[in-house]
Fold these 2 entries.
Entry 1:
Amino acid sequence: MNEQICDAIRSKSVIKFYYNGGNRTAEPFCYGISRKGNDLLRAFQTGGYSESGNPVHWKLFTVEKMSNITITDEAFSGNRPDYNPDDPVMEDIYCNI
């Protein structure tokens, strides 16, 4: 488990990281493990690179593919439409809003 991600979730701090070809900025909401044993982060991406061409949207990130994770000084409210704190893709949740 990446404690840095849980720290960002608890403090409702925006994170920046590199993922699949580019830098991204996101609000982390839910961090857990999938049924296949992969650590996952459900976050609302607010900017940066997007393979889909839609950088501002809910995204699911595989934590092992994330690098250079930085917790910023920017806070977010923790309220976003369509957020489910009991994320169904996660078998076990480490931390969430």
Entry 2:
Amino acid sequence: MKAAMEGDLSWVPQIAKGAGPVYLAIADALAEDILSGRLGSGMRLPPQRTLADALDIDLTTVTRAYSEARKRGLVEGKVGQGTYVRPRVAVSAFLARGGAIDMSMNLPPRFDDKRLAAQMWSDIAALEQAEGIDLLLRYQEPGGTRRDQNAGALWLVHKLGEIALDRIVVTPGARGALLTLLAALAEPGDGVCTEALTFPGALSALAHLRLRPIGVAIDREGIIPDAFEAACRTHRPKLLYCNPTLHNPTAATMPLERREAVIRIARAHGVAIIEDDAYGMLPLRPVPPLARLAPDLVYHIAGLAKCLAPALRIAYLVLPETRPPQHLAGGIRAAASLASPLTAAIATRWIETGTAGAVLEAIRHEAEVRRALAQVMLPREGVHIAPEGFHVWLELPPAWPRGEFVARLRTVGIGAVPSDAFAVSAWPHAVRLGLGVPATAEELSQGLQTVAALLDETPALSSIVV
């Protein structure tokens, strides 16, 4: 070994010959020494170059080893200070459940139905015979093919009723539809009302297009009509963007009376409505969408990511019955014409064969299982679970700053999103937990157990981190 300064060499791993890749052997030795108590919580590891010199190996090998250790939840890096050992209890919990549990994303839960999964792939394979090479070598028709539009109308009929096909635009996902609409319907500097807590992607789109977000106060039933009325009088917005069913992040669903009130106010002030109905297919008995109550006023976005398959990146944009001027409608179709013909064809086939309906039902069932877990494992106070969705809005006790709570969870490999990501102005004391990303209900249960345990403690007394 090369010489190393004694003060810098706080730990040297014992690596057996033939133990496989050296970087993995270093990470394995680190885990063993933490669990055995030979390395204490908060101990600073040797600088990477110092350890490389001590072991007479390349610096990049040690860099890979430290990176692997971070992935396993063994250590944490502090900018400008070095790499430190995490608490043994945190390491044990992380390793016991096999790694990280990401509840920061809000994806539909993975169902365990091998026959249905095989049917999904079989439908995809059948496209070769049904569509031929043209499917792979042609451009998408603006707004989707007639067949794709018809599939969209079939998918949406139970919640929107019969829809003329020329009102349906097939878009590359809900974000693509939203960006297209905002660009077509508003000019830089225009005000756009949103719920005071809203989809982060919408905030990004508004910022990108230099539109002014106007947060409208909400409660457990969504937008407060009086607050929307006040915003219209004060700010004269061009649009209202909202997510009235299984709201992201609060899990609220706006009741019928309130939807009707919001529509009346929008009409009175000449405000067009963009309805993001990402979760609208999940309820078995949905409240009528805004687009059904006011088909002449509402632009309806029905994405497939939350109710069918995120990988498709397909959404159906339904234009109002009183269509916008031809140049505007043409602009919307042209801007949204980038939807992949292949994924649009997959969505169409799944809808036509009934596979999409079966997948939706499987997602509903798995979401019910996961909601039941959350209801049992999380405390009642401050917990809001979407009745037919798969996310939780968790209002934190006063003792827990949201940033610190999320950071503490991250140290044991659990991802959560603080309210800051959704807030237009004020930041409520809360976090969102997605129930769908963990691969199994058992993995979700382990993550929820850790969340509940942390809620029972205070930051000063928490044993999850030093």
